[in-house]
Amino acid sequence: MSVMIRPVEAGDREGWQQLYDGYHQYYERPDLPQSFFDTAFDRLMSGDAGEFRGLVAEDDGQLVGLVHYVFHPSLWRPEGVCYLQDLFTDSRTRGRGVGRALIGAVYEAADAAGVPSVYWLTQEFNYAGRMLYDRVATRTPFIRYSR
Fold first, then answer.
1. How far apart are alpha carbons 54 and 67 in whole angstroms?
2. CATH code of the domain in which 94 resides
3. pTM over the 0.90 mark
4. Are 115 and 105 in contact (CB under 8 A)?
5. Residue 140 domain-assigned?
6. Does the chain have fewer CB atoms within 10 Å around its N or its C terminus?
7. Which pLDDT tens digit goes with each residue over 15-31?
8. Dihedral sign computed on CA atoms, order 122, 125, 129, 134
9. Is the Cβ–Cβ distance between 44 and 52 less than 8 Å?
10. What is the C-alpha to C-alpha distance for residues 107 and 109, in angstroms, rounded to an integer?
């Protein structure tokens, strides 16, 4: 498998949505309206420095993975931090390095921006993902609360 990681482009809309819908299905979110996907994709395409960024993994002309991330300020780190919000790979390509390559590309983008801290969250039941994350990052002792 020869995967290319690149920024998401306007022409990726259909393949991106299939992957992003798969992501939400995996995390057992209810069916989302088309307007959700339209808004998310528009935000990725906006190009605003403070907005979300997206990368896709492409293999032989097919999108096989995506990652979304955003830089934001932090009182703890004057240079700010990078939040990796969404990561998903097509089930047919799991275990073949696509997720690792996407995380690596976010690390590279953060390093280029002078932001050494990258973090993300996952659900406890994401065992396969957590096995990868344990190899490419350090699990922290923080517990997340939400309203």
1. 6
2. 3.40.630.30
3. yes
4. no
5. no
6. C
7. 999 999 999 999 988 78
8. positive
9. yes
10. 6
